[in-house]
Design a protein that fits this description.
A hairpin with a 5-residue loop joins strand 1 and strand 2. The protein is α+β, with helices and mostly antiparallel strands. It starts with 11 loop residues before the first helix and ends in an 11-residue tail after the last helix. It contains 6 helices and 6 strands, in the order ααββαααββββα.
Length: about 200
C-alpha cells in the first residue's frame, strides 16, 4: 500500500494497516471493557504509544450538537499553524465541508463505531496536504458515546499549480466504517524474534 491510497475499495482494517492509525485503534480497543465504548478517562496519554501522541485529538459533542476540540497534538498544531483546542469543528473546516464532517462525527457517536476517512486540507492558498483521519467513540460518563478520540496523519504537501483545480473539500475523498467484528477482534500480538 502506498502512503496515500484510496480507502474506497478497502475494508476498515485494511485502511489502517501499516499506518500509525493502526496503533491508535489497537490502543482504543485495549481500553474497551466487556465490548463497551471506552471511557474518556481510559485514554491516558502515559499509556499510549509515544509515536501517536503528536497526531491525537479529542472532540466533545456539545449540547447544541456542535463539536468542540478539547485536545490537539503538536503535529496537528504545526500543520494547522495554530492550536485548534477550544475551537468548534465548524470553524475549523471550510464551509462546504461542515455538513459532511458533522455527519461523520455524529454518526460515530450514534453508531458507536469507528470510521477512517481521507481527504485534502487546504494548507495555504497555493497548497494542500493529504490526510487520513480515524474517529473513535469514547464516553465521559459510561452511559453513551459523547466524545471523539482519534488521530490524523498527514501526507504529501502538494502545490495547487501542479493540479488543474483546487481540491473539493466538501466531502471526504473516501471513508470506511468499522464493523462490530473489526472492533471485537483482539489487537494483533507481536511475535518474538527467533534467534
Amino acid at each position: 500500500m502506498t502512503n496515500f491510497e484510496s480507502v474506497d475499495t478497502l475494508r476498515f482494517l485494511d485502511a489502517l494497516r501499516g499506518t500509525p492509525l493502526e496503533a491508535c485503534l489497537n490502543f482504543w480497543r485495549g481500553r474497551r471493557q466487556a465490548g463497551e465504548t471506552p471511557r474518556k478517562s481510559a485514554m491516558d496519554p502515559v499509556e499510549m504509544p509515544r509515536r501517536i501522541l503528536p497526531n491525537l485529538f479529542i472532540y466533545q459533542r456539545m449540547e447544541d450538537g456542535r463539536f468542540r476540540c478539547r485536545l490537539a497534538g503538536t503535529e496537528i498544531c504545526r500543520v494547522f499553524r495554530h492550536n485548534p483546542t477550544g475551537l468548534y469543528l465548524d470553524a475549523l473546516v471550510v464551509p462546504g465541508a461542515v455538513a459532511s464532517r458533522q455527519r461523520l462525527f455524529t454518526s460515530v457517536l450514534e453508531r458507536e463505531l469507528p470510521v477512517v476517512y481521507s481527504g485534502r486540507l487546504m494548507h495555504s492558498p497555493e497548497s494542500f496536504v493529504r490526510f487520513r483521519r480515524l474517529l473513535l467513540p469514547v464516553s465521559a460518563t459510561g452511559d453513551r458515546a459523547d466524545h471523539i478520540f482519534g488521530m490524523v496523519v498527514f501526507y504529501d504537501f502538494e502545490r495547487i499549480a501542479r493540479n488543474l483545480s483546487r481540491p473539493n473539500d466538501s466531502v471526504p475523498d473516501s471513508e470506511a466504517w468499522a464493523t462490530p467484528e473489526d472492533i471485537q477482534a483482539e489487537p494483533p500480538q507481536r511475535l518474538a524474534a527467533c534467534g
